[in-house]
Amino acid sequence: MSTRDTPAQIGDLPPLGRPANSALLLAGITTLAQVAEYSDRDLLTMHGVGPKAIRLLEAALAERGLRFAGGSS
Fold first, then answer.
1. Helix (H, G, I), strand (E, B) or coil at 4
2. Which of 40, 49, 58, 67 is deepest in the core (most CB within 10 A)?
3. What is the mean pLDDT of residues 41-53?
4. DSSP secondary structure, 17-68, as one string
């Protein structure tokens, strides 16, 4: 999937860059609940997911009372 074809926002995820959205879609992740099943380290191994995307996801998770798996954040 080309990042050009990737939507700017997916499900209830915060607006992320298209490379991060593409990586999450490829992994089948479309909701914050699904993001919470992964550690931040796991997500960082995905090509396209960087520190900025992790910060945005972490903030969105916190707003919902969620956190990354493993509690490393």
1. helix
2. 49
3. 97
4. -HHHHHHHHHTT--SHHHHTTS-HHHHHTSTT--HHHHHHHHHHHHHTT---
